[in-house]
Protein 1
Amino acid sequence: MGDMGVLRSLVDWAGENHAAFVGLNPLHALNNRGADISPYSPLSRLYRNVIYIDIEQVPELADCAEARSLIASSDFQRQLTGLRERRHVAYESVMALKSSVLRLLHRAFVDRHRDRNTERGQAYADFVERRGESLTGFATFVVLADHLNSAHGPDWRLWPAPYRSPHTAEVETFRQSHSDQIDMQRYLQFELDRQIASVGSAGGLPIGLYGDLAIGTADSYGYFISPSHHHALNYRLPPHTKASVLSSRHRLIRERMALIRTFSPKYHFKPPKELMLRIRCNDRFNRNGRQRPWIPMPIK
């Protein structure tokens, strides 16, 4: 399947043919397994799908002989060839194969850069600090889901009760005992962010990359961290409650605006002075079978 390397080739071609931008489907984070492969029903709109990382462009590959040896092995190449020859993208298999290399690259990053005064180590520290608790919370959720999925399924509401909230003692213990895996998820978001920025500035495009934004998210990370911040709908498009938006001093909106800007550093997205959010009512307001009404929510 395509990755940032393929996208770079497309951007270069577009620049040579005098295009202004390249438009993309949402790159939001997904489970990459089963039916959870739609970019319009993501785990989160704030983080991206690490399946798109171009392994050959990860800086650690040059210094990690173990990773290069794995890629060159006959078994790895056999699996890679099989995946490329398939008619449809096997998301779970692609992610599993890439992860076998990415784990080695993360280990090399930890040994050479993390908590060290190197350019890349400092860039990672800045990224983690800038994204704050949100990044660590997302990384924790991803690792929890991988850990609990086989026994309890991907729906966090069916997980054992102590793991249905990020604020329990059990989740904190899990976070400490799986710190390396959680750090790897942060590292993958950091590297993908770097690759997207590099591709977006390539090709001499006046605008760069235009990234689509999904309307909502699946019943996943957003619900998990703050279920009271969302209206309970059956559309899998959970809008934020008015109270949560106002109490966060519009942080929820600012995070999404910041995400949009990262796609095209040459094009400044200026939000309107007044943002109108529309919330569909719950089914209990639709007993007569009529179209569900929209409730405007002005935020100044």
Note: Residues 4-273 form a domain with the TIM Barrel fold (CATH 3.20.20.80).
Protein 2
Amino acid sequence: MTRAARQQARRNAQRQRRFYQQQQQQQRSATSRKQRQRRNATVWGLRGATEFSADSVLSNPVAVVEMFKRWAPATALELIRATTPDRYPGQPGARRMDGSWALVFLAHIMCGNPDWQRWYHDWQDSRIWQVCGFDKKPSWTSLYGRFAELEHPRYVAAFERAANHFVRAAANAEPCALRNFHTDGTAAHSHARLEHACPNLSYCRSCSGTVAKRLARASDDDVSHERHVRSAAAEPDDPDAPPDPVDDQGHVDRSRKVIRLTDAQAQTLALPYWRDSLYVKFGPTGHIYRCRDKQAGVRAYTAGPRSKRKVWVGGYFLPAICDFFWAPAAVNFFQAGIQEHLGWPPLYRKLLTALNDDPDEPTHIPTAVIADKAFTNRTFIGFNTNEGVASITPTRRVPGNRHWSSIRDPDGRYDEHSPRCRYCGGPSAPARGAGEGFALTGTGDPRISYRCALGWTWECQNKLQSISCRREPRALLPIGRNEKVFHDLMASHNHFEGVFDSWRDRYAVSGNSNATRSKRTVSIPAQRLRAAAALLAEWFRICLRMGYVGNHARRNPYEPVIRDNGGTGFAAQLRYRARNGLALPIGPAATSLALAPVPAAAARAPNAPNAPPLAAPP
């Protein structure tokens, strides 16, 4: 090859490299624009996706298991393989019966009966055993042992993987679905109770307070009431710390502080059942109580005129409920003594796993998560913003019992709702042009790019401004409080509480009464298994009802509709901003341009100039 040919080949390679670089840059710009545009997307909803009781086929557990094997054979075979223990040659013990216990449990979960023995006696003559691959009906002892075996985390993960297959099928079929999610915690009660367990009489006499042989259960109303009292109060200084017990008026009651004894402390006190039981006491000098459910959490309450002590033994049920289908896409159970919002990061990881094949490099990221006041804190909102997810929560008082407006920036870069112009102090305009809106930078910094809505100066009119959301994540949101879509999503949160009742009735998940409570002493592992199987039953039946699986005909007569019920909240937001002057320039930049008066504190300072009058618009 001659020298000229080599130079020409080098120039051609450089042109090709520049072309590929420009193409990749255009693709990244288009992706960034789509990410910004999706923040202002319309809110869609679908009615009737989970009305299984209106369908005689989908409400029949035997028929659903048969269709699961017929319309999703690969998923069914993978579930059977993952939940069947391997037996090595020469392993002692009798050979297990042929058949899938995972399919039996799937049929059991759709009956809504938490009592295994009662369900077993009710379904003895059913053909569910033949459908699940059994030659004959197994004994009650075998069923109890195999159902208890399924509570292992490995088998729970197998149910979740099978459910995720149908979640992704629904996401691929409905592009506007599985974008916005609601979350809220509800009490999941354990069947175990607290029993008095002081080691000896002398220790018991040295304890303070009255003693009871067994402590009464706190009702779901008691748990909800304290949660509402706590949410109505100001955000705590440390939102991640274990909650202090409060009375009916919201005052801290240290005598109800639950202290969980470690195994070493239980052995030191010579408590006999420390290996498989939980020991707690109320306050540093309180009596010791034993709970046979070691993995449960405990919270104490007082009720009645004599302040009778009641306890909630169990955990939180925290789902991520799809705003489109009104069905949980991922669930998380954790102990009752943990703050509610701290269960969201592992739940978000489960949600990414449900929506994507690889959660470390997701292609389907949630747009927004809607929650109530209990989640309005820096930890929850900051985590979501760093992940590129908008937090749709109402305002509340901030630490120190200060008003929400106290989070406003003294330098005038942002108010309590949105960023402001650095040149004139005016409000920011809605994102409309290229490069505007929320985006994550290459270093993972969440930033909002915006333009001034007033345009008083040349810089206001021509410069694109940017601010990091980490300066104040509660005010600088990916979907701002000044956007109507924020209030449309917030308005839809009032109706999702019915999902909890539906899951208690359909699957006996997160039971709060003797009829819906699991009778297992290990409540949290049992609830995780029930929730994982319920996810599979829920999403497989949604895919059947919507016609997403195989060639099954669609059975839902309703079509997606736009949810635009946030007009009242959006109008109230605009009135608040007009009443407090947030539609006008404020802050030091506005004062320096004579667009706002000098603050009273600065005007009273020694040698301070008089406040300049407001200037006319240019």
Note: The longest strand covers residues 308-322.
